[in-house]
Amino acid sequence: MAHSLEEAGLENPAATQPVAAGLPDRILDRINRLIVIVSSVALVVAACVLTYGVVTRYFLHYSTDWQDEISVFLIVGSIFMSSAAVQARRGHVAIEAVSSLLSDNVNRWRLFFVDIATFLFCAFFSWKSWLLLEEAILEGYRSSSTWQPPLWIPYSLMTAGMTLLSIQVLFQIIAQWRRRSEA
User: Fold this and answer.
1) Is residue 5 domain-resident?
2) What is 5-42 written as a DSSP string?
3) Quick one: which H or E segment has residue 135?
4) Which of 5, 32, 60, 127 stands the most exposed, by the fewest C-beta atoms within 10 Å?
5) Do the Cβ atoms of 127 and 45 come closer than 8 Å?
6) Is the pLDDT confidence value at 132 over 90?
7) Domain count along the chain
């Protein structure tokens, strides 16, 4: 079982695709690269915060109310924010059992329709996230812990990540459509 495109003997599909939208596609690529770096740092910070929480609780018998929430914010934020970069490399989990049974032409159509369904789901999720973020800001929602950070922080990360993922999938659909039109 191959765990990466290179191990499977495949090229990065994002690198071989024609540019879907020119400048907007290049801008999204640069945003994705920056977000991957920031998300990586956020995961390291979350690991440090969790380690600090364990050490202070175990050795110092000191409770840290904030460490659980901040680590969840960092981890969830990094996952949502980096999802578009993962999609750009087609790095999300996919079921390959069906694709090996199909012809190349049928498989391309399957991928196209899967991308459309993915876009519809992500666009809906993004829209609902924007509504949730607006509500959290207007109503001043806070978490129920003693630390009580504002919930607009994780909601904004979720909203931005899902919006970027929707745009990324849309660009991939456009690129596939253009390839079909040119062929």
Assistant:
1) no
2) TTTTT---HHHHSPPSSSHHHHHHHHHHHHHHHHHHHH
3) helix 104-139
4) 60
5) no
6) yes
7) 1
> What gap in Å lies between CA 149 and CA 48, rounded to an integer?
19
In a domain, 162, yes or no: yes
**Tens-digit pLDDT profile for residues 80-90:** 999 999 999 88
Helix (H, G, I), strand (E, B) or coil at 4: coil
Four-CA torsion 10, 122, 167, 73, nearest 10 degrees: -90
Token pair listed for 152: 């607009």
For residue 71, the enclosing domain spans 21-94+102-182
Distance (Å, whole) CA 158 – CA 153: 9
Residues in a beta bridge with 150: 142
Show the tokens assigned to 133.
Answer: 């973020």
Asked if the structure places residue 113 within a domain, the reply is: yes
Angle between helices 65-88 and 23-58 (to 10 degrees): 150
- The verdict on residue 2 lying in a domain is no
**How far apart, in whole angstroms, are the C-alpha atoms of residue 90 and residue 88?**
5
On whether the CB atoms of residues 149 and 142 are closer than 8 A, the answer is: yes
